[in-house]
Amino acid sequence: MLSKWLLGQLHLLGKQHLLIVGLIIVGFVVLTTVLAPFIAPYDPVNYQNGGRLTPPSLKHPMGTDQLGRDVLSRIIYGGNIPLKVAGIAALIALVTGMIIGLLSGYRAGILDRALSLVMDAMYSFPGLILAIAILATMGAGIFGMIFAISFVYIPTYFRVVRGQVLQLREQEFVEAARAEGASGFRILLRHIAPNTINSVMAVLSFNIADAILTEAGLSFLGFGLPPPAPDWGFDISNGQRFLLAGDWWLITFPGIAIILLCLGFGMIGEGISDMINPRRR
Hints:
This protein has 281 residues and is mainly alpha-helical. It has a single domain (80-276), classed as Orthogonal Bundle (MetI-like fold). It is built from 13 helices and no strands. It has helices spanning 2-15, 17-34, 36-39, 71-78, 80-107, 109-124, 127-138, 142-168, 172-179, 184-192, 197-220, 232-239, 249-276. The radius of gyration is 22 Å and the shape is elongated. The relative contact order is 0.15.
């Protein structure tokens, strides 16, 4: 039975072209970032002797910046911060939002109304503005960005999980568990929570893509790591000053990297949604 199920899942996965392409894109970016010390042609921080603001060439395929640093090397190293910040923040938001959503949906009553009101108020704020407000009080840095981004996306998981719990708590298998004397904690952990995983996983991939954009926006505004740390958002902010002078490569290649990574996670999210939703399939 297990082998047949695995074969069925592999057959279903083979039909999800968006998911496969997304996994390839994200895998390529992650692998490139991990192997950055071995594949980057130059040091991303130290100045080079290739000249300042030189256009793409064989020596520097993506050109150099105003300090003579190789743009390609900064692109390769620059994926480290967005991946860490977005990944950790999304996981923290997932766990926190899922726990609150489970409790709120199952307990209902005053607790549910109060939590729903708070989460709706948080959800009504634009994510980037709320993250900026949090960082303005905490200070810039990678830990501040992780906390701010995770705080912003907690309501997303809360709404998804709470909606699922409100439907599941009235199902017959939950009523049967109550009739057998199962505690509320056991019902949540054994019967309801596992049935919310599919919806949460579909949201997680889209959330990571959105978190990468938020991290890039925060770094662009100066809330990320201080220079000269390589970061795509900071490099775009740094390069915009030279755009009018015709130095297009300073913002083009970091922008492409951000778009490519977000596109990969978006494709993964679409593929997972197709796999878990029979109607879409």
